[in-house]
UniProtKB/TrEMBL annotation:
Pfam families: SPRY
Protein name according to UniProt: B30.2/SPRY domain-containing protein
Keywords, in A-Z order: Membrane, Signal, Transmembrane, Transmembrane helix
InterPro entries documented for this protein: B30.2/SPRY, B30.2/SPRY_sf, ConA-like_dom_sf, SPRY_dom, Ubq-SigPath_Reg
C-alpha cells in the first residue's frame, strides 16, 4: 500500500469514528425529545410526568420504532459522510504528493520519467502524445454509432467491421480483418466502435507473423488515437503487451502483469462489458481473472506494434477459440446480415431461361440451306482491295460432300450465320488463316500477284487442299 492509501485509510477511520459519535448523539437527542413530547419521565420511561403509571403497549412500540428509524437515518448519513471524507482525503493527498514530489498526471515523478524515457525519440513521442490528448479530449469527436452505421451492421452483419489504415501509418491492409505492419511504431483501429446493446462483446486476434524483438499491444481505445502510440499508453485506452503479458491502462509507465508472453500462432481474446466498463482478456481460450475497470467510453478495437508483424482478427465471422463466447454468441454482430449472399455457382442450371437460350430455333428448309456455312475445303474466295466475292460449288455437290463429313462426325454441323469475310489488310485474320485455325471459315492461302498486274494491291485465293476423307 502506498503512502497515499495509508493516509486515506487513517482519515476514513477518523471520519467513521466522528460519524459514529455524531449518530449516537443525534439518536439520544431525538429519543429525549420524543420522551418529553410524549409526556414520559426520562428517569422512568414507563411513568408519565403527570404522576400516572398508566402505560400501554402502543406507546412502547411507538418509542421502539422511533428509535430504530433514527438509528437507520443516522447510519445512512454516517456512510455518506465517510464516503465524502474518503474521496476528499484521496484528492487532497494526491494533490499534495504531486506538489511535493513533482508528479505528473500519471503519478510519475520527473526523475522516474527520465529514467524510463531513455532516448530522445521516446521523449518526443511521449510529449506529442500528451499534446494530442489536450488537442482531442474525449468527447470532442462524436464516435457513437450513427443511424447509417447501424443500418450497415443490419445489412452486412459482422462483416461491417474492418480495419482502417490511415495514410500516416506504415501498414498494409491485406483484407478487411488482416493487417501487415511494415515497420516502425504504428497503430490501426476499426471503422466502427463496439456496440452497447448487449451485455458482453468479444473478439479475438491471432498473431500471424511476429519476430521475437517486436512488441504488439492489443486492446481497446477511443477515437481519435495517436497513430504512433501503443495501445494503453494514452488516456482512455487499455492494451495487452504480447512480449511480457502486462496490461497498460492510460499510461506507458504503469502496467499490471496478468498473463504470459504470446508467440506466433497464439490467439488473444478481448471481452468488453459496456454496462460496467469492464475489460478482460483470454489466451488460447483460457480467461484471465484480472480485469480492467472504468472503460465507460466509445471503444474501438485497436492494435499497435513497434516493428514488422502481421495479425488476423476475428469479430465473430467464424468460431472463437473461447468456447463460452461461441455458446453465448458474444460476437460484435450477426454472422449474416439482411443482404443475401450471391447464389451458388451452377445453381441456375436447367432453368427455363437457359433452356430457351440454348434451344435451336426452328427454320425452314430454304432458310436452313441458306444459313448453313459451306465446308472450308469446297469454297473459293477472291479478296480484292474493297470487294469480296463468295464463289460456292453447286448445291448437289455440296450436299453429297456434306453428308460424307456429317457421317464422319456423327451429326450435322449447323451454324446460324455466314462466317465473316476478311480483307487482305487485316493482320489478325491473315495470321489466323496462315496458322490453319478452324475457327475461321474458310481456311485460305494468299498468293500475291506480280507487280505488272493492273491491280498491284490485289490478290487471289486458291482453293484449299481437300480433306483426307473427301479425297478418299
Amino acid at each position: 500500500m502506498t503512502r497515499a492509501g495509508i493516509w486515506s485509510c487513517l482519515l476514513a477511520i477518523l471520519g467513521l469514528l466522528h460519524t459514529g459519535l455524531a449518530v449516537r448523539a443525534a439518536t439520544a437527542a431525538a429519543a429525549e425529545s420524543f420522551y418529553i413530547l410524549s409526556g414520559f419521565d426520562l428517569n422512568n420511561p414507563l411513568a408519565r410526568l403527570d404522576g400516572s403509571d398508566e402505560s400501554n403497549d402502543s406507546d412502547e412500540a411507538l418509542i421502539i420504532l422511533f428509535i430504530l428509524a433514527t438509528a437507520v437515518c443516522g447510519a445512512l448519513v454516517g456512510i455518506g459522510v465517510v464516503f465524502i471524507v474518503f474521496y476528499t482525503a484521496t484528492i487532497v493527498v494526491q494533490r499534495f504528493r504531486r506538489f511535493v514530489y513533482g508528479l505528473d498526471e500519471d503519478g510519475v515523478s520527473e526523475r522516474v520519467r527520465n529514467q524510463l524515457l531513455t532516448d530522445e525519440d521516446s521523449r518526443q513521442s511521449y510529449e506529442l502524445g500528451r499534446a494530442f490528448e489536450r488537442q482531442y479530449p474525449y468527447g470532442s469527436v462524436n464516435t457513437q454509432l450513427t443511424a447509417g452505421q447501424q443500418a450497415q451492421i443490419r445489412e452486412k452483419g459482422v462483416d461491417a467491421w474492418e480495419f482502417v489504415v490511415n495514410v500516416d501509418v506504415n501498414a498494409m491492409l491485406q483484407s478487411k480483418t488482416e493487417v501487415l505492419f511494415m515497420g516502425g511504431e504504428n497503430c490501426v483501429q476499426t471503422n466502427l466502435p463496439l456496440p452497447k446493446s448487449n451485455a458482453v462483446y468479444y473478439f479475438e486476434v491471432k498473431l500471424v507473423e511476429k519476430p521475437m524483438d517486436v512488441n504488439m499491444w492489443i486492446g481497446l481505445a477511443t477515437r481519435p488515437y495517436p497513430a504512433w502510440r501503443m495501445t494503453g499508453w494514452n488516456k482512455y485506452s487499455t492494451g495487452y503487451c504480447t512480449n511480457n503479458g502486462s496490461v497498460h491502462q492510460n499510461s506507458p509507465f504503469k502496467a499490471a502483469r496478468i498473463g504470459e508472453r504470446l508467440f506466433v500462432g497464439d490467439i488473444l481474446g478481448i471481452g468488453y462489458q459496456p454496462r460496467s466498463g469492464v475489460v478482460w482478456f483470454t489466451r488460447n481460450g483460457r480467461r484471465y481473472k484480472e480485469i480492467v475497470s472504468g472503460m465507460l467510453y466509445d471503444l474501438f478495437p485497436t492494435i499497435s506494434a513497434d516493428g514488422p508483424c502481421s495479425f488476423s482478427a476475428n469479430f465473430g465471422q467464424r468460431g472463437f477459440v473461447f468456447i463460452e463466447a461461441n455458446v453465448k454468441r458474444w460476437g460484435l454482430g450477426p454472422v449474416e446480415g439482411s443482404i443475401l449472399p450471391p447464389p451458388v455457382y451452377g445453381a441456375n442450371q436447367n432453368t427455363i431461361l437457359l433452356e430457351t437460350a440454348t434451344s435451336p430455333s426452328p427454320l425452314s428448309d430454304d432458310e436452313d440451306e441458306d444459313s448453313h456455312s459451306v465446308p472450308a475445303n469446297n469454297t473459293v474466295i477472291l479478296i480484292d482491295d474493297y470487294e469480296s466475292t463468295d464463289i460456292t460449288l453447286p448445291r448437289q455437290q455440296r450436299q453429297g460432300e456434306g453428308q460424307q463429313q456429317n457421317s464422319r462426325h456423327g451429326r450435322r454441323q449447323r451454324t446460324n450465320h455466314r462466317p465473316p469475310l476478311y480483307q487482305k489488310e487485316d493482320p489478325i485474320a491473315a495470321q489466323l488463316l496462315e496458322a490453319g485455325s478452324t475457327s475461321l471459315e474458310p481456311v485460305v492461302k494468299y498468293r500475291v500477284k506480280q507487280p505488272e498486274s493492273p491491280l498491284p494491291h490485289s490478290c487471289s485465293v486458291i482453293e484449299s487442299a481437300p480433306s483426307s476423307s473427301s479425297s478418299a
